[in-house]
Amino acid sequence: MESRNQSSASEFILLGLSENPEQETLLFALFLCMYVVMAMGNLSIILAISSDSHLHTPMYFFLANLSLVDFGLATNTVPKMLVNIQMKSKSISYPCCLTQMYFFHFFGIVDSVLIAVMAYDRFVAICHPLHYTTIMSPHLCGLLAGSPWVFSYFISLTHILLMVRLVFCGNNKIPHYFCDLTPLLRLSCTDTSVNKIFVLIVAGMVIATPFICILASYARIIVAIMKVPSSGGRKKAFSTCSSHLSVVALLYGTTIGVYLCPSSVRTAVKEKASAVMYTAVTPMLNPFIYSLRNRDLKGALRKLFSKKIISSS
User: Fold this and answer.
1) Is the pTM of this model over 0.85?
2) CB within 8 A of 128, min separation 6: which ones?
3) Which residues form a coiled coil (predicted)?
4) Rounded average pLDDT over 168-179
């Protein structure tokens, strides 16, 4: 009850990745390039899939959703950081901070669950090819793609509702480049035990559970691949699986380190490095990982760009 008489902070200071001006200039150029590559890659995939009727299948439907989510996740964090570096201003208002936090968790949760859905889709396609079209019906695909968005909406909203009850009466400097739960909870001068318990529950549901499902799906896929008689076919399949699993390891390895590891082993530097991986690096890599070895998607991208060139000439 004592916190009701305390005034809460009206704004926060995002300290960013570095306070060194020379390093900030380098970081600005690096993250600007990463963001441009990410935006072009993900938006190109969305346009290619939507414009080519041959790609209107469950796998590409989920991939288009993933590209949209990756674009939203990176756009929610990276541009604000670039503006802060360019304008030499690191402040963010309390409402804007909560808004950024909401969309970060909203897109992050959808991203995590959707990758698990895509792993299940590949499991059905490889392990049950004759029943694939029956199992992956339009109704189930819509349910698998839409449920993460609805689920994420309510979970992210709950995070924010639990956050607004807290009071920030002391230090308002966030050792991060965007507003995230864990650094904000450390700044609160009120009891955050309910928030921390909810974070652990949600992390178990949207990080640990999808990660286990992905590993189980790929374990079954690898067993199925081992039965392929052609060594060339096995090599190609293993190459595709390894690239997918590298993204999975990068995404879930960093998020588990931030949200499920004990606070005693976490530092601000580790949290920022992990955040860079899942807010900038992974969204940038996904278009390349999921398209470079995909002949149909590469063909659709070539058609898309050739149409653009012809229409502009």
Assistant:
1) yes
2) 135
3) none
4) 88
